[in-house]
Amino acid sequence: MIRVCIAGVTGWVGQPLAAAVEAAEDLELVAAVARRARGESLGRLTISGSVEDALAVPSDVFVDYTSAVAVKDNVLAAVRTGRHAVVGSSGLTDDDLRELDEAARSAKVGVLAVGNFAITAALLQRFAIEAARHLPSWEILDSAYAGKMDAPSGTARELAWRLSEVRAPEVEVPVEKTVGDVAARGATVNQSRIHSMRLPGYTIGLEIRFGQQDERLTLSYDGGPGATPYVAGTLLAIRRVHEFVGVVRGMDRLL
Ligand SMILES: NC(=O)C1=CN([C@@H]2O[C@H](COP(=O)(O)OP(=O)(O)OC[C@H]3O[C@@H](n4cnc5c(N)ncnc54)[C@H](O)[C@@H]3O)[C@@H](O)[C@H]2O)C=CC1
Ligand SMILES: O=C(O)C1=N[C@H](C(=O)O)C[C@H](O)C1
C-alpha cells in the first residue's frame, strides 16, 4: 500500500485526485493540505492547514497541486523528510528543479515533475521533439485562462527544455537586435521563444509552430474544462516515483 499526502486537496485537480486515490486498492490517502479548508473532514482524515502539519503524518508520496508560489517550499519540505514527490504545480524554473534535485538526491528519494500529466500534452511533446530534428526554426504559444498566475505554463517550460536537448532554434534576426520593443518577441526559455496569452474563455493550450521556406507545421494541444486527464497521469506517477532518485522531468520516463 502506498501512503499518499496531497497538498491542494480542495483544488480543481486535488479534489478528483483525492477521490481517485481513495478508490484505488493499492493507494491510501493519509494526509491532505488546503489552507482554507483546514480542520474540515475528508473521509476519515482531517485536512491540515499547512504542509508541515501534514508531513507529521507518516506517508510515502507527497503530491503537490497548490500553486506556483507555494510549490517549491512544499516539495523541499517533503523530500527533506524522506518523501518521494510528484509535482503537478507549475511555476518551477530550471534553477528550482536543480535545487530540488540536490535535495532529493541527498535524501535518496525521487521527484517526478511533470508540466502536464495529460497524455495528449505528452504526445505533443514527443512529436515536437521529432519535428525539431528536421525543422530548425520554431516558436511556442501558451494559452490559458485569465486567472492563471504563472507564465510561461509548466507545459510550455517543459517543452522548451526538451527541445533544447535537440538543438537551439535558428533565428534570422537575433532577438536583442529587434528594432522596436524586444518584449514583443516573447520570453526566452532554454533558447525557445514562448508567447503566453491569458484570456477569459480559454482553459489551457499549447501550440508549437515550425516554419521553413515555403512550408509550416503546427502542433496543437487543447486541454478541456475537466481535470480527468491529469488524474490518470498523476496516479501513474504516484505508483512509479519510488523507482527514481532525484528529479525526473516529464511523462516520458513513465510511458
Ligand atoms: N502538471 C499538470 O498536469 C497540471 C498542473 N496544474 C497546476 O497545478 C496547480 C494547481 O492547479 P489547480 O488545481 O487548478 O488549482 P486550484 O486553485 O483549483 O487549487 C489549488 C489548491 O491548492 C491549495 N493551496 C493554494 N496555495 C496553497 C499553499 N500555499 N499551501 C497549501 N495549499 C495551497 C488551495 O487551497 C487549493 O486546494 C497550478 O500550478 C496549475 O498550473 C494544473 C493542472 C494540471
Ligand atoms: O493552470 C492550470 O490549470 C494548468 N497548468 C498546467 C501548466 O502550467 O502547464 C497544465 C495544465 O494543463 C493546467
TrEMBL record:
SUPFAM superfamilies: Glyceraldehyde-3-phosphate dehydrogenase-like, C-terminal domain, NAD(P)-binding Rossmann-fold domains. GO terms for biological process: diaminopimelate biosynthetic process; lysine biosynthetic process via diaminopimelate. One of its GO terms (molecular function) is 4-hydroxy-tetrahydrodipicolinate reductase. CDD domains: DHDPR_N. InterPro entries: DapB_C (IPR022663), DapB_N (IPR000846), DHDPR_bac (IPR023940), NAD(P)-bd_dom_sf (IPR036291). Its EC number is 1.17.1.8. GO terms for cellular component: cytosol. Residues 121-254 form the Dihydrodipicolinate reductase C-terminal domain. Pathway: Amino-acid biosynthesis; L-lysine biosynthesis via DAP pathway; (S)-tetrahydrodipicolinate from L-aspartate: step 4/4. The keyword Oxidoreductase applies. Keywords: Amino-acid biosynthesis, Diaminopimelate biosynthesis, Lysine biosynthesis, NAD, NADP, Oxidoreductase. Residues 2-117 form the Dihydrodipicolinate reductase N-terminal domain. It catalyses: (S)-2,3,4,5-tetrahydrodipicolinate + NAD(+) + H2O = (2S,4S)-4-hydroxy-2,3,4,5-tetrahydrodipicolinate + NADH + H(+); (S)-2,3,4,5-tetrahydrodipicolinate + NADP(+) + H2O = (2S,4S)-4-hydroxy-2,3,4,5-tetrahydrodipicolinate + NADPH + H(+). It is an enzyme of class 1 (oxidoreductase). PANTHER family: 4-HYDROXY-TETRAHYDRODIPICOLINATE REDUCTASE 1, CHLOROPLASTIC-RELATED, DIHYDRODIPICOLINATE REDUCTASE. Belongs to the DapB family. This is 4-hydroxy-tetrahydrodipicolinate reductase.
